[in-house]
Amino acid sequence: MLCPQVTLLLAVCLTATIPPVAATGYTMVKTFAGSTFFNDWQFYNNYDNLTNGDAIFVSSSVAASSHLAYIDPSTNHAIIKVDNTSTVPYNQKRNTVRISTNDNFSVGSVWTVDMLHVPYGCSVWPAWWSQAPAWPTGGEIDTFEGVNMVTNNQMGLHTLAGCKQVSQVQSSTLINSTDCSYLTNSNEGCITTNPSTASYGAGFAQAGGGMFVKEFAETGISIWFFSRANIPSVLSSNSSTIDTSTLGTPVGNWPAAGCNIDTFFAPQNLILDITLCGDFAGPANIFAETCPGTCYNDYVVGNGSNYATAYFEIASVNVFSETGTNTIVAGNSASALGFSLSTLASWLGVIGCIWLFLA
């Protein structure tokens, strides 16, 4: 029979090694809104060498001076837009914006965005998404994306080979593809389309916008979309806590059964960008589905009047962590290699127990 001291010591050690029970409760740990919205973002400050877009992602100073990224004084909302006032000559690119958060956010996070307008128009390719710094290692999660004059938002994952969408629990039946590997079908990803025409473009604006919610959990990745009239009170009230189990069935779901989250995903930067043409919006076969003419020649070149609707209007972006944790990871720290604060705390507890036992 063990003495009481040893029994107590073993109990403490076992408690330290048992992972916390998965939770659906989350507490807000960071917000981007109002006059400080653009704090803690990096502006890409380079031409689009990522997706071959006919765009230049400007610096923060150029974005401010050109009125491409600013706070609307009448609403206190953030505006991110394509330059629609300059005349772009042939063989030149048009100015626009790509920003990503300085911090990364690890598994156990929920990210919400409240938008009143999203970019749309021929040649326009906007996205609200997240990506690990070493992509494709660490994966990518697309919450909002579309091109040209499509009417429905698409969502999806892009990962290393081996991740698939299986046995999903979601409201959308529009599943474009289930293989998430960036090596499959020219990096199509495992894509689900939102059946609501209020989720993108003119329909989104006419409905007064809405909110996207993304849960990045050990059990899988889920995305909800709520048009303005249907936003739950817990979200519209900007509550400091949310319980995702009260949000109903997500519109898109990628369970861990087909794609182990710890294997394929690392802490993510949040990204907002608008590019033009490029690998997705520009190919002739895709462009012709919703737009006449030629992507670059007929839209990017010229006086920019085509881009009057090519802007985000954002009330807020909020980051939540599983209650009792903090999933904010600064830069490429140890957490970017897959360690969460709770995991580190557990290991420190184990080491402490071993040291105490040996002593």
Instruction: Identify the CATH class.
Output: Mainly Beta
The whole-angstrom Rg is 22 Å
Give the integer mean of the pLDDT values.
89
Shape: globular
| Biggest pleated-sheet summary | 9 strands, antiparallel
Count of DSSP strands: 22
GO molecular function: hydrolase activity
Transmembrane segments: 336-358
Keywords: Hydrolase, Membrane, Signal, Transmembrane, Transmembrane helix
Signal peptide: 1-23
Q: How does this structure look, described?
A:
With 359 residues, this protein is of the alpha+beta class. It has a single domain, classed as Jelly Rolls, CATH 2.60.120.200. 19% of the residues lie in helices and 32% in strands. The chain contains 9 helices and 22 strands. The protein has helices at 4-17, 60-65, 201-206, 233-236, 261-264, 278-281, 284-290, 295-300, 341-358, and strands at 25-33, 41-43, 46-47, 55-57, 69-72, 77-81, 94-96, 98-101, 103-105, 109-117, 124-131, 140-145, 154-158, 174-175, 190-193, 210-217, 220-227, 241-243, 252-255, 269-276, 311-322, 328-330. Strands 1, 5, 6, 10, 16, 17, 18, 19 and 21 form a 9-stranded antiparallel sheet that branches. Helix 1 (4-17) runs antiparallel to helix 9 (341-358). The longest helix is centred in the C-terminal third of the chain and has 18 residues, at 341-358. The relative contact order is 0.23.
